[in-house]
Predict the structure of LRAT domain-containing protein.
Amino acid sequence: MVYKQMLKYVMSIILNYMTQNETSLERGAHIAVEGNVAGIEYYHHGIFLGHTIGVADFGGNDVSDAKPRIVDIYRFTEEGKRKLYCIKYHPKQCLPPEQTARLAEEVVEHPSIWGPYDVIENNCEHFATRCKLGVAISKQIQEHIRQCLANPKVMLAHIVGLASVSPFLFYHGHRFRSPCTLL
């Protein structure tokens, strides 16, 4: 329980998440939804392209077909069941919103330039931060690696947790689309 509270606190500090109303989103916004698979909490990331277009994210039915794609905002939020966040950056830290959106659309149009899914090195947060910041990083993965190195018990819990949910990470339904699973 303490771990979950710490995770939520750290993630809120790192990325300054702010709850959003879907109608207030602007094209090019970096958005995320909370998720939980078998007790492992994560944030699934994407770039909002507009209400008539949807969200560019990095997902698929399984690891082998995961790629940058566009999904409807309601599918991204699991028909509104998953809490939606907009990640705020200082304007000098990120690309302009329209440039962010165009970059996401370009990668979706040419998915082979992005590379295969890898939970540690190439996940949905890497995709969204590359489009928004110009550099592909995953703060949630960095934080979990830091926690694992600082506490072997946390590392063991993550290894056991990941092994128990790995078959579910790319469930063939819309519920578990390409999550940014935390290690």
Summary: Strands lie at 17-19, 30-37, 40-50, 54-59, 67-71, 84-87. Helices lie at 2-15, 73-76, 97-109, 124-133, 139-150, 152-165.
